[in-house]
Design a protein that fits this description.
The protein is an alpha/beta fold and 437 residues long. It has three domains: 129 residues, NAD(P)-binding Rossmann-like Domain (Rossmann fold, 3-Layer(aba) Sandwich); 162 residues, Dihydrodipicolinate Reductase, domain 2; 81 residues, 2-Layer Sandwich (Alpha-Beta Plaits), CATH 3.30.70.260. Helix content is 33%, strand content 24%. It contains 13 helices and 18 strands. The strands form three sheets. Strands 7, 8, 9, 10, 11, 12, 14, 15, 16 and 18 form a ten-stranded mixed sheet that branches. A six-stranded parallel sheet has the order 3-2-1-4-5-6, with helices on both faces. A hairpin with an 8-residue loop joins strand 15 and strand 16. The radius of gyration is 24 Å and the shape is elongated. The structure holds NADPH dihydro-nicotinamide-adenine-dinucleotide phosphate (NDP) and L-homoserine. The site of L-homoserine has 11 residues, from helix 6.
């Protein structure tokens, strides 16, 4: 199906947002023009652009494009067939623009996972009813073509689980912390300078951005509506250099993972820092790289790795969506038609079962370990190992436990009880241990 437009000679693109991603898209379309011409039936031409500040120097020549002060005006622009929304935000101009573009029968390409996580199902319905593309490869795992892979190459499979490193900023920070021994706060600024972080970096470090992406992956994997509210989310603020050292000693790496699994009691979606065996594939994915692992009932395990953030990878994903539209390849946003997406409940809170890591700071005095161990015994938590490295009577010392299979609910009760022990001087650091291969 070719895209119809007034000139009939090009796919005409309006870009809203000229920051890291928007400028990358302009650059890629210019620099790789010959490649795109070879692969697409029609040239892909930027005709109009929009951002807040017209005078800002963006290191690209924008003089040949129409400028719109109001990004929503791109949806009315007579020379725009496809709107590329790379402003960001779950509401405001990004949402208004996409809704108006669909109402005006224009295709939409977006990198905005926050918006899709909140309104993806409704937007997919409107786009599909109008026969339009709502394409968002850049929204999940940056340059990794994971949406294409799940909607096309893996589409014949019943997906059993999907998990991955879904935030480049966090993976960069955790890698730097491990390699240099620095603390979290020292490394965050670097990730911002490199263009990896969200406008509000708390979205990255508190796990929200990874959860936005996980909610989208879950919908594609299990043919269900997007359910951000059903995700248990925490981030990496509490991961300390000391936890990273203990992880290494125990044979693990710390990663912020998004994990989604279909269980008999509903969908279990979790985003949190966790320990993974050092020899697991995902443990070796460092820096800004993301990885997504899917398990399909016929294909088996599939692993995709690539840069998860930054100008080049994100622009690559946005332009691949534009190429699909130019080639007439328009699929339902979440693979299954939006009208058929199921409402699957979230698995009950605390139902995850697995081994856990607990680190406490305790006053080094007789009987403390016995008190802590009694709490574990009372909650039926079986210990796998314990580390108390130094002896320093009367001082605070770290004590680390790893457990055998335990439910999140049991661990939560243990932590509550430990909070009442006077010798435990700060809230315990808890991480699940994910036995991935
Ligand atoms: P930036 O902050 O670098 O750029 C945002 C752009 O939007 C700027 O050009 C800004 O204008 C413009 N803008 C902001 N508010 C308005 C408004 N009210 N009206 C008009 N224009 C506005 O963001 P990124 O390029 O990093 O991210 C854009 C989107 O891509 C977000 O949804 C993000 O989550 C997503 N994304 C980003 C990735 C990355 O690595 N950076 C990777 C994957 C997805 P001005 O420049 O004039 O201030
Ligand atoms: N802030 C996001 C990240 C950008 O660091 O992964 C890519 O979605």
């Amino acid at each position: 199906m070719a895209v119809e437009n007034a000139s009939g000679r090009a796919l005409r693109v309006g870009i809203a947002g000229l920051g890291t991603v928007g400028v990358g898209v302009v650059r890629l379309l210019e620099e790789n023009r010959d490649i795109l011409l070879q692969h697409c039936p029609w040239p892909i031409e930027v005709t109009a652009v929009s951002a807040r500040d017209r005078r800002k120097n963006r290191d690209v020549d924008l003089s040949k494009y129409d400028w719109c002060d109001d990004p929503v005006a791109l949806a009315d622009h007579p020379k725009v067939d496809v709107v590329v929304e790379v402003i960001g935000g779950a509401s405001g101009p990004a949402k208004a623009l996409i809704e108006k573009a669909i109402a005006n029968k224009k295709h939409v390409v977006t990198a905005n996972k926050a918006l899709l996580s909140a309104h993806g199902t409704a937007l997919a319905r409107s786009a599909e009813q109008a026969g339009l593309a709502l394409a968002y490869e850049a929204a999940v795992a940056g340059g990794i073509p994971i949406i294409k892979s799940m909607r096309e190459g893996l589409a014949a499979n019943r997906i059993e689980h999907v998990y991955g490193i879904l935030n480049g900023t966090c993976n960069y920070i955790l890698t730097q912390m491990r390699e240099t021994g620095r603390e979290f706060a020292d490394v965050l600024g670097e990730a911002q300078q490199l263009g990896y972080a969200e406008a509000d970096p708390s979205f990255d470090v508190d796990g929200i951005d990874a959860a936005h992406k996980l909610s989208i992956l879950t919908a594609v994997a299990f043919g269900c509506e997007v359910d951000f509210a059903g995700i248990r989310i925490s981030g990496i603020r509490n991961v300390s250099a000391m936890d990273i050292e203990y992880a290494t000693e125990l044979g693990y790496r710390i990663k912020l993972l998004g994990l989604s699994r279909l269980t008999e009691r509903g969908i279990e979606q979790r985003v949190h820092a966790c320990m993974v065996p050092q020899n697991a594939l995902i443990a070796k994915v460092d820096g800004v790289y993301n990885a997504v692992v899917t398990q399909g009932n016929f294909v088996g395990q599939n692993v995709a790795i690539g840069r998860g953030a930054g100008q080049g990878p994100t622009a690559s994903a946005v332009v691949s969506d534009l190429m699909d539209i130019a080639r007439g390849r328009i699929l339902p946003a979440f693979s299954a038609p939006a009208e058929t997406l199921k409402k699957i409940p979230a698995a009950p809170e605390g139902s995850h079962v697995g081994p856990f890591y607990l680190r406490m700071m305790v006053v080094d005095r007789p009987g403390v370990i016995a008190e802590v161990a009694a709490i574990m015994r009372d909650e039926n938590v079986s210990l796998e190992s314990m580390i108390q490295r130094s002896r320093s009577p009367g001082d605070r010392v770290p004590v680390v436990f790893t457990t055998h299979e335990t439910s999140q609910a049991q661990v939560t009760r243990v932590v509550e009880k430990l909070g009442k022990v006077s010798a435990v001087v700060e809230p315990p650091h808890v991480m699940s241990i994910e036995q991935l291969s």
